[in-house]
UniProtKB/TrEMBL annotation:
Boundaries of every K Homology domain copy: 59-127
Keyword Signal part of the UniProt annotation: no
Domain of life: Eukaryota
Keyword hit for RNA-binding: yes
GO terms (BP aspect): DNA alkylation repair; regulation of DNA-templated transcription
Record's protein name: Activating signal cointegrator 1 complex subunit 1
Ranges in a coiled coil: none
GO MF terms held by the record: RNA binding
UniProt cross-references to InterPro entries, sorted A to Z: AKAP7-like_phosphoesterase, ASCC1, KH-I_ASCC1, KH_dom, KH_dom_type_1, KH_dom_type_1_sf
CC annotations in GO: nucleus
Organism listed in the record: Seriola lalandi dorsalis
Length: 354
């Protein structure tokens, strides 16, 4: 971590600098409940927390925090060390539900400032380890229109017929036609309550989306292919280019504003200034394992040992390939590693353009 550029953590709309004093890692114990421990954050003990309600009780003060059960172990720490240290440092008591039981972490103490300090420290721990969780959902524009699927399958057949002699080119590295999509951004939603909140936040975007689209679907054209890296002879990802038919930037604007909204709610981490919209058609992560997704799922191929392919002939012969046109009318909150009755990802929520 750069001293002058510390990690910034968004907690319920408030920004905190993460100043790590020390970080330790422990081997997994037999009950696999404690896989890591984060040392105390450099936060003022009397810092006031205004993101949660701290209630006065007969014995002092109390605050309940909604925390996904998968994150309990990071608050407990190895053999309970993290919880004991937090309780000792803040002079509070921290009650945590049993592992696997969804509920609230309850913090009690004699002084409101102490409870507030404990809440803030717990939140920083939660957000720090949340960032290490694999994402579970993603916002997507589906490209699985029948006409585009037909064009993609013809593209696949033509490439395999004309370029299968090129290094690394074979059938398993092609995308599943039913799951063609544009990824807008990824989210780690760790329980049903977080999924519901994400759906609610997506609904909040309906007005600005319809203002951009003027309440109508967007006519898109999927034409041309491009590669991710700078060497066409060693390519891992080949993608189709997607544009609005009228050449406007409406699709890009919707994607960027969606990310802006979800980042402001603390549900998404901004990776780029603008969303790079691309429809993956070939990805070497798929190689020999059709269950792997272009969203980064684990499989036989990993990021370190994946085998690139030579895309020069594909780019030369199919660089301007027309996959098709269709009307896009929805943005979806899609669930990773899932399939619905159409073959696309299962949707947890959606907003229509019209």
């Amino acid at each position: 971590m750069e001293v002058l550029r510390p990690t910034i953590i968004n907690i319920n709309g408030r920004m905190y600098r993460k100043n790590i004093i020390k970080e330790e890692h422990y081997e997994e114990e037999e009950d696999f409940s404690y896989m890591g421990q984060q040392e105390s954050e450099d936060l003022a003990e009397d810092e006031i927390c205004d993101t949660h309600s701290i209630d006065k009780t007969e014995k002092g003060y109390r605050c309940a925090i909604d925390v996904p059960s998968v994150l309990y172990k990071y608050i407990i720490g190895k053999k309970g060390e993290t919880r004991r240290r937090l309780e000792s440092d803040t002079k509070t008591s921290i009650s945590i539900p049993k592992q696997g039981v969804e509920g609230q972490i309850v913090i009690t103490g004699s002084h409101k400032a102490a409870v507030s300090s404990a809440v803030t420290r717990v939140e920083v721990l939660i957000e720090s380890f949340r960032r290490k969780q694999p994402f579970t959902h993603f916002l997507s524009f589906p490209l699985n229109d029948p006409k585009v699927q037909e064009g993609f399958l013809q593209f696949k057949d033509d490439v395999l017929q004309q370029c299968s002699q090129d290094h690394g080119v074979e059938g398993s590295i092609f995308q599943n036609a039913a799951k063609l999509h544009l990824t807008i951004g990824t989210l780690a939603l760790l329980n049903e309550m977080e999924v519901r909140k994400a759906c609610e936040h997506l609904q909040e975007c309906q007005n600005f989306i319809r203002n951009i689209t003027e309440g109508k679907p967007l006519l898109l054209e999927v034409t041309g292919i491009e590669y991710m890296n700078d060497d066409p002879a060693m390519v891992d990802v080949l993608y189709a280019k997607v544009n609005v038919k009228d050449r406007s930037d409406k699709l890009q604007t919707i994607a960027d504003q969606l990310v802006e909204h979800f980042v402001s709610k603390g549900l998404m981490v901004r990776e780029w200034d603008r969303v790079k919209l691309h429809g993956t058609v070939i990805n070497t992560l798929f190689r020999k394992d059709s269950t792997v997704e272009d969203t980064g799922g684990p499989g036989r191929q990993t990021m370190s040992d994946r085998e690139a392919f030579d895309a020069r002939n594909i780019l030369k012969k199919f660089g301007a390939y027309r996959f098709g046109e269709f009307e896009l009318n929805t943005v979806l909150l899609s669930q990773r590693y899932s399939t619905d009755c159409t073959g696309y990802y299962t949707s947890a929520g959606s907003v229509n353009f019209s």
